[in-house]
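Design job #97: recover the sequence.
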């Protein structure tokens, strides 16, 4: 049996959706699997086991479950990786262990480089989702097998998932044109900056309203996070006079149905791994504008990080020449990375 360790939705985010789609794809291929969920939220999903002490109980479960043929960790941060690495070295040397690093690898080596290097080398293999991170890890002394495989696994369009979207969202989309979509798993700050660029989306909406008075921005935010900042942003929306043009969607639902109905997707993140949402938008042929903080897939339109004027200019040009940009996406085909991940599984 294959085990995935990480956060299973809800909350909905790039990593949790990766885990869900991997679980479903494994099941479709007849492969027995479970998710050991470390979110501390009760779930009603099949083949999902809530870890009673979140990540702390994972090594104990792994020790007693002798039918586990492979454990695949999708765990955030340095602390948890070091914790798991300790048990890997002490008790699980002979058992196959895989780690996927979903964010930027460089942050892992900010402190105690020797310890994180030991922890990473305790896994039989590592998958990096971000381009050039493999080379970086090897230069840092990581000697285990390292692969670069984007985290995107295409969604299967399901009517039940589309039906989960609030009618309020569809009414908003039907009443506005053009429609710009953006998302964040929750409000997070990194280096004192709004990580997912909610503030920039608000400014973008206000700037574009001058030329596109019926513009609508749908910002998907399944978990609020920083409630004080959220209230501050709602006040900013009122002050800018765009309360009828900006909609928060705060339900735990899939993002792709909204992307499919949107004219543009924006990703103004201040740092990034390989954003699943960007690949999802391109997969559905929705023109996409993203910050230049990370390598992006072909045909993504880049703007300078935290430069709202450049963001406005790029989205404005896209809208002014929309059919031309749509045609450029016709030949874009993003790989289904499930088969690549399966080859890594088979090599362990």
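Job complete. Output follows.
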């Amino acid at each position: 049996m294959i085990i995935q360790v990480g956060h299973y939705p809800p909350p909905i985010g790039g990593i949790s959706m990766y885990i869900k789609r991997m679980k479903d794809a494994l099941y479709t291929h007849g492969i027995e699997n479970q998710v050991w969920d470390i979110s501390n939220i009760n779930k009603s999903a099949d083949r999902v086991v809530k870890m009673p002490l979140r990540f702390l109980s994972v090594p104990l479960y792994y020790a007693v479950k002798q039918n586990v043929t492979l454990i695949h960790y999708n765990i955030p941060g340095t602390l948890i990786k070091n914790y798991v690495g300790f048990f890997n070295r002490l008790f699980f040397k002979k058992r196959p262990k895989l780690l996927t690093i979903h964010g930027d690898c460089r942050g892992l080596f900010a402190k105690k480089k020797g310890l994180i290097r030991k922890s990473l080398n305790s896994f039989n293999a590592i998958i990096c989702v971000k381009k050039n991170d493999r080379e970086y890890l090897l230069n840092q002394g990581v000697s285990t097998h390292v692969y670069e495989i984007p985290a995107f696994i295409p969604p299967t369009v399901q009517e039940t998932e589309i039906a989960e979207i609030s009618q309020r969202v569809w009414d908003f989309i039907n009443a506005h044109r053009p429609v710009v979509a953006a998302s964040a798993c929750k409000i997070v700050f990194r280096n004192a900056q709004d990580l997912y660029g909610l503030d920039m989306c608000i400014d973008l909406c206000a700037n574009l309203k001058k030329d596109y008075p019926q513009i609508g921005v749908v910002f998907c935010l399944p978990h609020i996070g920083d409630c004080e900042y959220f209230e501050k942003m709602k006040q900013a929306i009122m002050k800018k006079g765009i309360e009828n043009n900006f909609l928060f969607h705060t339900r735990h639902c899939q993002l792709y149905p909204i992307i499919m109905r949107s004219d543009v997707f924006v990703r103004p993140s201040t740092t990034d791994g390989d954003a699943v949402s960007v690949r999802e938008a391109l997969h559905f042929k929705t023109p996409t504008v993203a910050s230049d903080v990370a390598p992006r897939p072909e045909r993504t339109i880049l703007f300078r990080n935290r430069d709202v004027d450049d963001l406005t200019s790029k989205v404005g040009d896209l809208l002014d020449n929309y059919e031309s940009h749509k045609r450029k996406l016709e030949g874009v085909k993003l790989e289904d990375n499930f088969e690549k991940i399966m080859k890594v599984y088979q090599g362990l």
